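$ run holo --ligand "zinc ion" --emit tokens
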Amino acid sequence: MRARHHIRYILVLILLPSGFLVGCGSTTNLVTGETQRGAYTWQEEVQIGRENDPAIIAQFGLYDDAGLSAYVDRIGQQVLQTSAYTDANTPVEIRSTPFHFRVLDSPVVNAMALPGGYIYVTRGLMAHLDNEAQLAVVLGHEIGHVLARHASRRAASAQLGQLGLIGAAVLGGVVGGGNVAEGILSYGGAGVQLLFLSYGRNDEREADRAGVAYAEFAGYDAAEAADFFGSLARLSQQGGGGGIPSFLSTHPDPGERQQTIPELAAQYNPPGTEVNSGEYLSQIDGIVIGNDPRQGFTEGDRFYHPELRFQFSIPSGWQVNNGAAAVQISEPNGRAVLEFSFAQATSAQAAGQEFGGQQGLSVSSQRSTTVGGNRAYQLEGSANTSDGQVGFLAYFIEYGGNVYRFMGLAGANNFGSYSTTLRRSIESFARLTSSSHINRQPIRLDVVRVSRSGPFSSFVSGRPTPEGMNTEGLAILNQMNLNTTVPSGYSLKLPQQ
Ligand SMILES: [Zn+2]
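-- output --
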């Protein structure tokens, strides 16, 4: 979780305009010029983007590098100017809508867009690109989704009807007594996925054509992007590890795209020639790769937060999901979950009493206590949700100028068998004092011009390996194989502690 990150609920609700289930009109797809069914007017799309942008930022966090953010925005705006956005036929309301390009603080390789001109790339994606031409194609692809109004077209189809039912508050969001963790963990992601990751393959091909066209019009050699899609194909084959993004699973087979991108690019005459790898690599030199331990990390059965200076134990075998706003720890079968987050309150008691006073909660006990020598307030009870009864154990802890909420949840019928485990973990919360944990630093990308030639693998020995990556992963990051001969004078992206 991020130190400067205070939001009330970590489970973000993707809000949709009320007319979302019924209102379907015809809209113009600016990429193809065709008329299509769409659920929203352009003004509604802008509203969806504006209202959900903070939720995306809350979920992933913005990458803290003003220079890199400005660079991505500059390239994004440049590609936008060569897109259908500026066509004389494009309605003024669209041409006058500002587009936003943001870098999210996530190691996962991903790019996405919200309707109305909100476009995101992750630092993981930035690290895996080799030059500006590749970035231009990726941004052009996302601009394509927005201008083709794919989300609106998808929402007009019946299968998205359930989206409006997604709940927000923590307890209200719990689904069923059986699989609490799944109910909770899938929520933040579900709305997000439905809105901007579940485009169909045709939408993706359309966006690819747009991405190549807009990048070419902006003067870039769009065929360069083929190597990036080659890397994506290998990342998806690797599976697991760094967490394979939906960008891969819902997009056309990256291997297919590796072939089609140069074919699409070859249609432009004169061809774009700009690649700008030197400028690009200097922009990403020093970017964090892999998980950032400054935002918390797991070692053995303990979770450590160097910035916020706390630690707590994790039940053995449970899975940790360290998000921007909360840490969620789930029992392997999803029968129980622990969630650690900020509480917005001036005292543990005030936070606890406000929590206990919520409608739908039945509190069986509550009292002031201490945890790790810190003032705390604990409550136990149950909640009726639309899908069943859930037992909870909630602690509010004052520490380091913040009030934290540490909550254990399990289906009411299972709660008894998990309450001791949940309590033990929560009560292990303590100050972090060991300097080796406090001083833990992320692994960063080091752009190095090599002074000899040799196989890629010979340049990574002695370098640190980011969490969730292996040497093959480092080769993928460089769009190379382990045995690729790197010529002298070539710039490699290598990890550096
Ligand atoms: Zn896409």
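-- notes --
The pocket of zinc ion is lined by residues 141, 145, 199, 204, 207, 251 (CB under 6 Å).
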